[in-house]
Design brief:
Elements (H helix, E strand, L loop, with lengths): L1 H26 L13 E3 L5 E3 L3 E2 L7 E9 L2 E11 L9 E8 L4 E8 L1 E5 L6 E5 L13 E8 L10 E5 L3 E5 L10 E7 L14 E5 L3 E10 L2 E7 L8 E7 L3 E3 L6 H4 L9 E7 L8 E2 L4 E3 L5 E9 L13 H23 L1
Parallel strand pairs: 10-15, 16-22
Antiparallel strand pairs: 1-2, 3-9, 4-5, 5-6, 6-7, 8-9, 10-11, 12-14, 13-15, 16-17, 18-21, 19-20, 19-22
């Protein structure tokens, strides 16, 4: 009785161990088994695993295919498995061919042929197609990427054409060619990646590094050209008419004569008995002198021009000859001097 009891106790323990092992085996079945086995899977050299959706054997009687999208080092790819035939086991294995392409359908890597078989899900009467996986991690060649440098005139015009280059990794240094955009009334300072900046960070002959696969935009930075006024005064009185002209700094013009039609049109008149001689930048006549038709260059501050007049000479009475009055007057003074000299000699 005692021996029989021990055997019965040992049998119970053995049954417990068998149940535990069976449970472990059941739990070890891949999770994909709930929805079928994956058609195909690869492991990348980055450690990432790409798994293709399941394909039932019924949906692949004479061939089928599956795809899976993935991202490798920042670039999108598509994994494809074309199954040509399905075997029933190790001695009788079908075949499929796997490839990787970019999103445009261009072949990136041919993974080759792989065996494909039917496999049943657990004890259920559900069969799936599963192809062998590569034995080594899969690496992909780096794709060609474009680096682009774009110029924005930022309110101006005639921006340089974009600069482009292709490569796989790293960056390219673009050398600017010195071309400037244009904008009326503004001076071009240079370039900046900030559209609203007030100072340039890149000279028109500078260099810019652009990583492959990216685009950098340079915006033109402008500074308004300062302007000033050239103000003509008809006289020193504040009630005298004035005429003014505004130009940008650096503009060169010819100084008007007082009798110029532009000034006459606003009421400039020469005082009676006077004639215009020149302009001066100070109302008291002590400023810089400008004569009519002189060259004037605008700066950043306003300049006032005041007229300087001189009296007209009074003419001698006409003698009826064509000679001018001044030589006749000189002769009279010379005659008077000779008379005085003669009288002194007689008295002596």
């Amino acid at each position: 009785m005692i021996k029989h009891s021990l055997l019965r106790g040992g049998g119970l323990r053995l049954l417990t161990i068998l149940v535990a092992i069976l449970s472990t085996l059941i739990l070890a079945i891949p999770s994909q088994a709930e929805d079928g086995y994956p058609l195909f899977a690869i492991t990348l050299d980055t450690g990432q695993t790409v798994i293709m959706d399941s394909k039932s054997a019924d949906s692949c009687p004479r061939g089928c295919y599956g795809t899976a999208g993935f991202v490798y080092k920042g670039t999108n790819y598509v994994l494809r498995m074309d199954v040509f035939s399905v075997g029933n086991g190790t001695p009788n294995r079908g075949g499929g061919h796997a490839t990787i392409s970019d999103l445009n359908g261009k072949l990136v890597k041919d993974l080759g042929d792989f065996g494909c078989i039917r496999i049943r899900e657990g004890g259920l009467d559900s069969w799936w197609v599963m192809c062998d996986s590569p034995s080594e991690p899969v690496s992909l060649p780096q794709p060609q990427k474009t680096a682009k440098l774009v110029f924005d005139a930022n309110g101006g015009s005639n921006a340089p054409t974009p600069m482009t280059a292709t490569g796989t990794t790293g960056a390219i240094i673009f050398k600017l060619k010195g071309k400037e955009p244009s904008q009326d009334h503004f001076t071009f300072l240079g370039w900046n990646t900030d559209k609203h900046a007030t100072a340039a960070t890149v000279d028109k002959n500078g260099s810019v590094s652009v990583p492959y696969g990216s685009t950098i935009t340079l915006y033109a930075i402008w500074q308004r050209i300062p302007s000033s006024r050239l103000i003509y005064h008809a006289g020193t009185d504040e009630n005298n008419p004035v005429e003014q002209y505004t130009r940008e700094s650096g503009t060169s013009v010819t100084v008007y004569d007082f009798s110029d039609s532009h000034l006459k049109a606003v009421g400039f008149t020469v005082p009676s008995g006077m004639k215009f001689d020149h302009w001066t930048t100070a109302s008291d006549g002590t400023g810089t002198t400008y004569y009519a038709d002189a060259n004037f260059i605008y700066g950043t501050t306003d300049v006032n021009l005041y007229p300087v007049f001189t009296p007209l000479l009074t003419s001698m009475p006409s003698t009826g000859t064509s000679e001018s009055p001044m030589p006749a007057a000189s002769l009279m003074f010379m005659f008077a001097g000779l008379v005085c000299f003669s009288k002194k000699r007689l008295l002596g």
